[in-house]
Structure formats: structure tokens, C-alpha cells
Amino acid sequence: MVNGLWCGKAAYEGKNVWIRVSETGKLDLQYNGMVIFNQVQLPGYASITGGEFALGGRTGGLNENQWFDNIALQTTVGLISVPLTFTRNGSTLQLTWDAGWKLQSTLSLSPANWQDVPGATSPWPVSTSTGTAFYRLAPAP
Predict the structure, then answer these.
(1) Rounded to the nearest 5°, which phi and psi values hold at 40?
(2) Nearest to 82 by CA among 93, 72, 97, 104
(3) Are the CB atoms for 125 and 74 separated by under 8 Å?
(4) Please, are residues 37 and 28 in contact by the beta-carbon 8 Å criterion?
(5) Which of 1, 37, 117, 132 could cross-link with 103 by S-S, CB 3.0 to 4.6 Å?
(6) Domain end: 32, 61, 78, which one?
(7) Between β-strands 85-89 and 92-96, what pairing exists: parallel, antiparallel or unpaired?
(8) Contact of 68 with 55, CB cutoff 8 Å
(9) If 0-12 CB within 10 Å is exposed, 13-18 middle and 19+ buried, where does residue 103 land?
């Protein structure tokens, strides 16, 4: 089941799954570029030091296989890099990003004061004639 829809085996083959758990126990899950869970609090979560990872699968019968390949485990603190793309047309930048993210901006990086851009949806036009601004994406609630 993906996002409330039952899918056959072929729907899962070759699809990317991305899972992140923050140090405060918030879960993000994406399947094939689609956000399934975003900032879901895991009840009773407590971070650990020196932990080990284990992967497992369950088949629906004795003759089925489960495959894991191209696995990357990364332990980091903070936001991950998310593709924020742009095109320029005269004095306007067109910012584009995937669903599940919100656009934030700040006028300075020293110190940064990131704020949600009210009403921002992809694609989002930004005038280059109004001064300097910095943009980033953050997980949408």
C-alpha cells in the first residue's frame, strides 16, 4: 500500500525509498519522489549513540523473495539537500521544487532569519530587482 493505494509487485520494482528520522523523532518518508509522511512524530522515540542497523522483509508466501539493493545509510544532523531549481526570464527568477516542501527566505545569512514565504507554491516567481534575498526549502507540515 502506498499513500492509501494498493499496488502490485511491479509498482515497487526499481523505485526509490527515502527515510529520515530526526534527532527529535520526527519521521519523513518518500516513495518514488512522493511524500508519504512528513514530520510525523514517533511516539516514545529516544535517540541512541553507537546503534546498529538491521533490515528485514516479510513475504506473503514461501515462494516470494524480497530484495534490497543500492542501500545507503547516513547519520547526519540537520536538513538534507533538496533540489530547488530556477530559471531566469529577464528580471524574474522562477523557483521550482517538489511537493512536500515549503519555501523559506531570509534577507541576510548573518544572522539568518528564515521565514516561510506566505502563499508560496511551485513554481514561484521572484523579482531580481527588489534586492538581495536567500531561499531554501524545508519540510512542509
Answers:
(1) -85, 125
(2) 97
(3) no
(4) yes
(5) 117
(6) 78
(7) antiparallel
(8) yes
(9) buried
Distance separating alpha carbons of residues 17 and 14, to the nearest angstrom: 10
For 28-37, 95-104, 109-118, which range has the lowest pLDDT when averaged over its residues?
28-37
Which amino acid, residue 2? Answer: V
The answer to whether 98 and 85 are in contact (CB under 8 A) is no
pLDDT in tens, 66-94: 666 666 666 655 555 667 889 998 889 99
pTM, whole model, 2 decimals? 0.45
- Asked whether 123 and 94 are in contact (CB, 8 A), the reply is yes
User: What does the mean pLDDT of the chain come to?
Assistant: 77
Distance of alpha carbon 31 from alpha carbon 67, whole angstroms: 16
User: Which of 43, 78, 113 is the last residue in one of the domains?
Assistant: 78
Domain of residue 91 covers 85-139
**E strand map for the chain:** 17-21, 26-31, 34-41, 85-89, 92-96, 101-106, 115-116, 124-127, 134-139
